[in-house]
């Protein structure tokens, strides 16, 4: 058998280069687009048709339906779009992935790949050394594009030559002559192959090369492409495994969409294949089914030419090679048309059933009710990080939740001030405050760890600066939680010292709590809309901080006079001022968060 293990490793390397090219090209485009790409998805409307178009264009741009659907899973997980919206985007993504098929069909066989790949890399390299990050990202995109087609060219060289390996050919011939059973087998092969390499585009490329060389018939090639549509759903399923219920439902919806589409095509398989053969011929590209018949005819009538055909020993202008080249083009168009027509018909049927899809996946993936106060990140998880630039949106959403959780602690501390001392209620409320403080510590670590993982990915300079600002914000929010817990500890010490506050002290403490709560509410609102913060809203925060500082100064001066005039005990004044100072420090941490947000606003508008 002439196909060695080294050849097999070469095939794996060629597929790897193809996938790596797709990855580099996708990441380069994401970095070049930056916030614009994230805003397109983040600002998704409820219109299913707009969502479908967005899914199509995003997938067409980044050349990977797996990447775009994983992004959709991430945004559903982050609460940036609903399950119904995600269904429309995923349907569009399935059509968008046909763009890759057309690119491969148009360029994979009509252009001598080696003639433009190296010059393209040569033109891209200078872009990598420019100071402007956008130019670097464009350079990465072009290099990824070159690697993709270099991999495609090498796949064609390392795919096993079945004609030269009779054992393998006999094995496939046995399964290729079972009628409709062969179709089902090759659909299963397409599913497994795509699940392993996690790319329907790579499966399409391999199928295209095998069919174009006459190794398998056109109808079985279509079956492989059909199976790849189901196999590609494995990536978002893996990404959703550690996500929330909404993310799991989105991945399940993607699987259901492709599965049901495949079922109806299999019910009408041969008429559907004939339709695509007719379309290919109607577009002037010839009959895609003629290639395998022609190769078999050459084998039967001209065995010498047949033997030389697959060892590349025929002269370049030979009539047989010219005819096969024309037929290869016909096959490539036929497969691209099959892939496109399948997804377009699937979309035109399924888009009207979005509501039904949502109800089905909600039934298949039921929600699990969990206690509100148990520690669990709501929007980010330890699962797959597919697009670092886009994962920032999830972290932003989680930080907003973190701030809201810490905001509750201010109310808990205020309530503890008025809770009867030495009571069970006081103990329970203080324990709850401590529990929240412990949760905030763990949330800070988890969010910071997630941001650090994002920063290890391929990010634009803007993305890196945003992550640095977010790390600072997370630290300041955790300090606010520490201050709230600190207020509780001051009240515990006051209780242990049997110190009593009079009504004036309680009134002043409540006033300071009111100022801090107002500043915190404003900060939480800013965090919830970091992308569109206005300067007027930031000025409001600074005014509130000045009010807190002025009140602190007034109360500190009045406290000295009240102690001197025996208005209350000296020790009561100490605990009273400790609380006021703790709350004023809380205001400082709040304004630190606002400062970090303001810096981001300035960089975005600069």
Notes on the structure:
This protein is mainly alpha-helical and 606 residues long. Helix content is 80%, strand content 0%. The protein is built from 25 helices and no strands. The protein has helices spanning 5-33, 35-42, 48-62, 65-77, 83-96, 98-108, 113-128, 133-158, 166-176, 180-197, 200-212, 218-231, 234-240, 245-267, 269-282, 290-301, 303-309, 319-350, 354-364, 388-417, 424-455, 461-496, 503-528, 535-564, 570-605. Helix 13 (234-240) packs antiparallel against helix 14 (245-267). The longest helix has 36 residues, at 461-496.
Helix content range: over 70%
Q: Estimate what percentage of residues fall within beta strands.
A: under 5%
- Summarize model confidence as the mean pLDDT: 79
Please tell me what the overall shape is.
elongated
């Amino acid at each position: 058998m002439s196909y060695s293990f080294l050849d097999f490793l070469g095939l794996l390397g060629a597929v790897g280069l193809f996938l790596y090219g797709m990855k580099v090209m996708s990441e380069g485009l994401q970095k070049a687009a930056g916030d614009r790409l994230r805003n397109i998805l983040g600002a998704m409307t409820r219109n299913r048709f707009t969502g479908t178009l967005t899914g199509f264009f995003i997938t067409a741009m980044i050349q990977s339906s797996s990447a775009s659907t994983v992004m959709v899973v991430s945004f559903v997980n982050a609460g940036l779009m609903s399950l119904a919206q995600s269904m429309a985007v995923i349907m569009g993504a399935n059509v968008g992935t046909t763009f890759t098929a057309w690119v491969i069909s148009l360029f994979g066989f009509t252009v001598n790949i080696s003639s433009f790949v190296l010059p393209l890399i040569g033109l891209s390299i200078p872009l990598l050394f420019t100071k402007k990050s956008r130019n670097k990202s464009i350079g990465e995109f072009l290099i990824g594009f070159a690697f993709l087609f270099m991999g495609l060219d090498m796949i064609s060289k390392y795919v096993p030559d079945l004609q030269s390996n009779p054992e393998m050919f006999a094995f496939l011939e046995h399964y290729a002559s079972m009628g409709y059973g062969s179709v089902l087998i090759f659909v299963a092969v397409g599913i497994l192959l795509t699940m392993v390499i996690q790319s329907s585009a790579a499966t399409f490329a391999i199928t295209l090369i095998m069919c174009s060389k006459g190794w398998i018939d056109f109808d079985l090639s279509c079956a492989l492409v059909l199976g790849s549509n189901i196999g590609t759903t494995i990536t978002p399923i893996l990404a959703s495994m550690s996500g929330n219920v909404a993310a799991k439902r989105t991945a399940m919806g993607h699987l259901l969409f492709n599965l049901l589409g495949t079922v109806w095509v299999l019910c009408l398989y041969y008429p559907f294949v004939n339709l695509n053969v007719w379309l290919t011929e109607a577009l002037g590209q010839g009959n895609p089914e003629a290639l395998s018949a022609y190769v078999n005819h050459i084998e039967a009538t001209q065995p010498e030419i047949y033997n030389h055909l697959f060892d590349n020993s025929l002269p370049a202008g030979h009539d047989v090679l010219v005819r096969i080249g024309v037929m290869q083009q016909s096959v490539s168009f036929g497969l691209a048309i099959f892939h496109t027509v399948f997804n377009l018909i699937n979309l035109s049927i399924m888009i009207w059933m979005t509501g039904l899809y949502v109800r089905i996946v909600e039934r298949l993936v039921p929600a699990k009710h969990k206690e509100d106060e148990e520690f669990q990140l709501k929007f980010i998880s330890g699962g797959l990080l597919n697009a670092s630039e886009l994962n920032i949106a999830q972290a932003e959403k989680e930080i907003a939740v973190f701030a809201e959780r810490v905001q509750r602690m201010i109310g808990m501390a205020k309530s503890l001030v008025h809770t009867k001392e030495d009571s069970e209620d006081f103990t329970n409320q203080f324990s709850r405050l401590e529990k929240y403080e412990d949760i905030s510590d763990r949330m800070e670590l988890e969010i910071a760890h997630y941001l650090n993982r994002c920063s290890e990915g391929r990010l634009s300079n803007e993305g890196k600066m945003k992550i640095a600002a977010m790390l600072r914000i997370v630290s300041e929010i955790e300090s606010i939680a520490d201050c709230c817990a600190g207020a509780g500890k001051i009240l515990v010490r006051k209780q242990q010292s049997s110190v009593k506050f009079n009504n004036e002290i309680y009134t002043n403490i409540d006033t300071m709590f009111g100022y801090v709560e107002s500043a915190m509410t404003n900060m939480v609102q800013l965090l919830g809309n970091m992308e569109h913060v206005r300067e007027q809203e930031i000025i409001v925060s600074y005014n509130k901080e000045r009010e807190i500082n002025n009140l602190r100064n007034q109360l500190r001066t009045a406290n000295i006079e009240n102690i001197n005039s025996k208005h209350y005990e000296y020790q009561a004044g100490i605990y009273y001022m400790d609380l006021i100072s703790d709350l004023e420090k809380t205001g400082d941490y709040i304004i630190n968060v606002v400062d970090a947000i303001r810096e981001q606003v300035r960089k975005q508008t600069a």
